[in-house]
Amino acid sequence: MPKYLxxxxxxxxxxxxxxxxxASGRRTAxxxxxxxxxxxxxxxxxxxxxxxxxxIVDLPDNVSAAALGIRGGAHPHHGADDR
Length: 83
What we know:
Elements: E1 3-8, H1 12-36, E2 40-46, E3 53-58, H2 62-74
Antiparallel strand pairs: 1-3, 2-3
C-alpha cells in the first residue's frame, strides 16, 4: 500500500478534547478513522508549531486518502488548513 504523510492541527475545541482525553484518546480516534477507509497507521507524532501532529499511514489509494482528508477536515476537533 502507498504511504501518506498527514499533517494536522487542532481547533480550539479539539485542544479541549486533547486535555480531556489525553493523547491516547486522540490516537484511538485517528486509528479508527484510518482503519475506516481500509488503511493502517504506521506512526503518529505530536508537534509544536503550525501543525500539532504528523501521521504516516498506509492507505489503499488516493481515493481513500481524499476520503480521509474530507472526513478529518469536516471534524469539529480539527481545523481546516488554509495554507
